């Protein structure tokens, strides 16, 4: 069965200060297991376990929190995907705060590889059924921060080789380029899972999002038939958008959609029609997914999207229609 579930932001963003990350939300994980989901992606910031860019001196107290996340998932039969959302030298949010550059500076590259070697050793006895490593969240577009397809591929191959030298069978995940959207045929031979995104068209998924200034001047959201970047978007457009990912899969790679979601400023009926088409495309392809997020403006719990119908489940106010769409578009082990 493919992996289906949610992203959790327990160790996602660290402001200045010495605060510890959040503990695992056991009630949320219980909800997932009860509803038949099996995947928890944990985007982390290395700032939690490193002070002042001292990459090689991680705090054991913080690493123990990650151990707790894994144990909580294992106890409930959930697969945990450990992700570096902020890696040494790069983050899609606030990259200027980094001391080094992941694609240009050897200091960042060495620290990046060492970090994954550390996790590979720490979890060497954990099975692939329980854990995968998602190397770096949403690399930038080609040319941004000096990243090229060549130096990115070299870095990924180096990190994968380092992990496999410690744990040859560990499942490794690599995110697509340009915020996760662009497939990487140059890495189709690597034997890793390629992780895509479900945010297109962004004038639906990110309408009025404060951190995405391209929404300015966009018309009020409609779906299908919204116009975005020279295309009229409907289910066929979505299906065509993922053709490069199907090509990478045909070359031997495995595919998973590690993030998707819709900000709560898009009308609920529009969002649900878009979700239904997107999920049906992935179901036809046989791909799993991870919704960004569980609770919050992109989630299924108390997201605040106008017109949503909530149902009290396990103590949560859950968007029942969105939950039903997520459940209906899974592929079980018994599916033909």
Summed up:
The chain is of the alpha/beta class and 336 residues long. Helix content is 33%, strand content 18%.
Verbal overview:
The structure is a single chain. It is built from ten helices and 13 strands. The chain is of the alpha/beta class and 336 residues long. The chain has one domain (4-328): TIM Barrel. Strands 1-2-3-5-6-7-10-11 form an eight-stranded parallel beta barrel. A two-stranded antiparallel ribbon has the order 8-9. It has a two-stranded antiparallel sheet with strand order 12-13.
| Rg on CA atoms, Å | 19 Å
CATH domain class name: Alpha Beta
CATH topology name: TIM Barrel
- Helix/strand/pairing class, anyone? alpha/beta
Largest sheet: 8 strands, parallel, barrel
Q: Helix count?
A: 10
Supply the CATH superfamily name: Glycosidases
Counted up, domains total 1
Average pLDDT: 94
Q: What is the β-strand count? A: 13
Beta content comes to 15-25%
What gross morphology would you assign? globular
Q: Architecture, according to CATH?
A: Alpha-Beta Barrel
The string of secondary-structure elements, in order, is EHEHEEHEHEHEHEEHHEHEEEH
